[in-house]
Specification:
The chain has 123 residues and is mainly alpha-helical. The protein has a single domain, classed as Zincin-like (2-Layer Sandwich). The protein has six helices and three strands, in the order ααβαββααα. The mean pLDDT is 92.
Length: 123
């Protein structure tokens, strides 16, 4: 599937718009970057099996982790465009998976674990 970088960014922005207004202020200063693919070294560090991939990543201290310490990098969300385009059959499936991925990574910012996200249907 091919979607331009601009159209993909619009899908990410649409997903962000689904976040309730009362939570959006907590995302101020949390950039959402779009990269083509996760680096192999990162996949290895995270223990992602070779036959799997990563759609998104939250890095940094979650809000529930207390104040950031000196020298600690700020929070950041990265969405990986390549695997999403590769795995989705059409634009509707892509829109749905981008939304799930963005919400999933935002949830990590709020301190929600992988296990809890799976229980909630966002895993």
């Amino acid at each position: 599937m091919h979607v331009s970088a601009g159209a993909f960014r619009e899908l990410v922005d649409e997903a962000l718009a689904r976040v309730p207004a009362e939570f959006r202020s907590y995302l101020d200063g949390v950039p959402i970057a779009i990269e083509d693919w996760a680096p192999e070294a990162l996949l290895d560090d995270l223990g992602v099996p070779e036959d799997e991939t990563l759609y998104g990543l939250y890095s940094g201290r979650a809000l529930t982790g207390g104040p950031r310490e000196s020298g600690e990098l700020p929070p950041r969300i990265t969405i990986y465009r390549g695997p999403l385009l590769e795995d989705c059959e059409d634009e509707d499936a892509l829109r749905e998976q981008v939304t799930t991925t963005v919400i999933h990574e935002i949830a990590h910012h709020f301190g929600i674990s992988e296990a809890r996200l799976k229980e909630l249907g966002w895993g």
